[in-house]
Amino acid sequence: MIKNKLAFIENYSLKTIVLSVFVFFTTFMVIFILYLQFQQENHALNRMSEKVITSKGETVKSMLEHYINVPKQSNAAVATSLKAMDFSDPNDQMPVIKNMLLQTMGQIFSGDKYLSMVALGTKDGHYISVGRNNVTDKEYLILKSRETKEKLNFYNGLSQSEEPRESIANYDVSRRPWFSYVNESKKATWTKAYRDFNSDSGISISYSSPAYDKNNHYIGVISSDLRLSRFSRYLMELTENENNVIFIVNGSNQIIASSKDDFLISDTSFGIADQEGGGLLSVMDSSDPLIKSTVKILQNSPSDVERIESNGSMFFGKVMPVGNNLNLPGWRIVILSAQDDLTGDLRSNRIITIILSFIIFAVGTLIAVKLLTMVTNPILDIARQAPLIARRKWKPQLNSQAQFSEIRVLNSSFMQMSDELEGMFLKLEEQLNIDEETKLMTRRGLQGKLRECYEERSDFTIGLLAIVGLSNFNTITSSLGRRYGKDFVLRFIHDLQTILPAGTWLARDADERFIICYPRIKTQDFCLSEQHKFERFFRGMDTEHDTDGQVYAGNTGFVHDVISPENLNESIMDAHIAFKFARSKGNGYSMLFHSDIRAEEIRNINMLRHLKSALSLNEFFLVFQPIVSLTTRNITGAECLIRWRNAELGMVGPDLFIPLAEDTGFIVPLGAWVIESACAQISEKLSGGEWPNDFKVHINISLIQLMQRDFIHTLFSTLARHNVTPQNISIEITETSMMKETEILTTTIRTIRGMGVSISIDDFGSGFSSLSYLHKLEFDTLKIDKDFVSDVLEDSRNESIVSAVIRLADGFNVPLVAEGVETAEVADKLQAMGCQKAQGYYFARPMPLSEWPDIGKTLP
């Protein structure tokens, strides 16, 4: 999985990968550093904005407290003067009050233009006030008394002799907000900020407090009006040359003072103001988007500095409450400071920093590219010369670009390695072309020699090719050891070369297999002569050449064709096919390849394809051939035989598919199926009472299956599963299997017999040297090969062999079963010779158990 994920790296060069990693991590580092710097700047900016805005807010707050104290001081001055007077008849005191108010405005607060008016409203409804014109800075009188016939007169100056500029009838002072609350509660208070027609700003606020005479009699209410326009101008001066905005709102979020002159009202007409707060501009209704954007922070009233964006510009904003200390609930100062004013050169410095960072990054990248080029180019030069290894011509010169010591070491190492590889190639080529043990050519060496000959002479050709294989090499090696096997092969090569014509090529293809090439075109007669020569050689009939008593078992396959380097491998394959067919016929046989052999090999391949699926398709079935006592002619046992019926191939004989199954290893699962199926059918016959309890069934077992380490467990677990006793089973092994006797085979047979299963030696007499193995293996039955039995009447030599085997069986005290009995005469002859049992078509053909004759019936 990891390999698949990293496979894409193979598509890129080392330089590209290293440079990409460098650029990636450097870019990441630069961006990360800039990000940290940006975060730190923002943090510092937030702290700085907090300090600057808070400092400015405290300044405004302090100034506002001073500003708000003016009306209180004015009222206190008037109240002190009134406290010294007797107001038994207030109307008589109007001139005195007028002078008192004028003194307050003209002398005590003459330089303070914050105060716009000082007034007294008496409890009997009279009113007198002295105001100051903000433009002319002159005082004027407003009066309601008996003298004005209870009208409220507005004068241009302080003289009542002048015609009033405006007169209002039915003015009721008791209904005015500044008067009514104090008149009832006798407590000082502020009015709401209101639109004042007598103030140039149009916005004022009044402070009212109760008045008493020297007798502590309640007189009325003193009121001082404060011009908020003056504070707005102060805010404008405070924010001059700054992109900042400061404004003050009341509890209803109405703007009562602002540093922006857009909110100043220049109407200077006279009249009675609405002191309920009507007509003031609210923040929500502001046409200024910056002011309007503060609605959210006014609603939440956060204590920290907030960021506000307006028309693409960023501002820091803060709301500071001020009304609680001044007895003006809900009053708040809103301070908006432009981020650019706070950052100053910070942004330009940041841009310079970013530019410098990327310049450094670009320079670093160029340096990295240069260094990587200095590293990778020498490596690439070395890599480009590496293909010369394949042609064994790699002698690169020292690289002048190898400026780094590591590159120089690498280059020198490759130089040294090229020399060592040259020697290794030569040695490896020799090992590949020459067999170390015999000094013969290998198949590769043979191909090389043939190619060289064709390059030297275009008319050169090989006219005959043979595959020679030793059948007894593995047996000798396993019995006597590898060293003896080596000597055996060397002796065989020596003897083989004595029978080959001069100029013949000999090569070793495997431990026990050799290739012979006959140069020049050969006739058909020459081919037949060579076939007969090798047959005599392997059968010990060669009298012309001395083999020093050495016995060689083997076969030969020939190919008669014009053989070139292009078709050499194909010719070897054809010769091997002929060799396999010759080997299947027995020792010493030789065969010349022809098209029928290839067709048969193709049939075997097709058969193998069907064989692999035959078990799963239930194409195999079992038949049983009775084994008869020659004395009583009763059935005493049976041999279990396997059959294969394929939809495409039809009935396939065991002699065809069993060798194929053994060659491919399929014999192991097939043999297990035979044991399983046979035991199931035997169990059915025994449990049904159709067979006696001592009835014995012979099952053929391949040596390959018998050598499996789990064979004993497979056999006896199957017997137990089907309730079949070991005494009902006899395992048949062929005589040729005894020649491959090993410790595992001997142990397996001994264990099986020890647990009650019989051992039968099948096809006895068909092999050779079998007698030498009989004393080593334990067995219970001998079965003589049918080739001897069928000709026992006509061939006296076969009769002698059968007689000898009968005596041999008697000597081992085991029964002999004659196979292939097809006539009554042969059956009678065998009985007369002393053979105990027989089987064959004369008695019964192999058949499924469902077609079996009655076991109690006497056969002919």
UniProtKB/TrEMBL annotation:
Residues 604-860 form the EAL domain. Pfam families: EAL (PF00563), GGDEF (PF00990), MCP-like_PDC_1 (PF22673). The chain crosses the membrane at residues 12-38, 351-372. One of its GO terms (molecular function) is cyclic-guanylate-specific phosphodiesterase activity. The keyword Isomerase does not apply. It comes from the Bacteria. PROSITE patterns: EAL. SMART domains: EAL. Keywords: Membrane, Transmembrane, Transmembrane helix. PANTHER family: CYCLIC DI-GMP PHOSPHODIESTERASE PDEF, SIGNALING PROTEIN YKOW. This is EAL domain-containing protein. It comes from Hafnia paralvei.
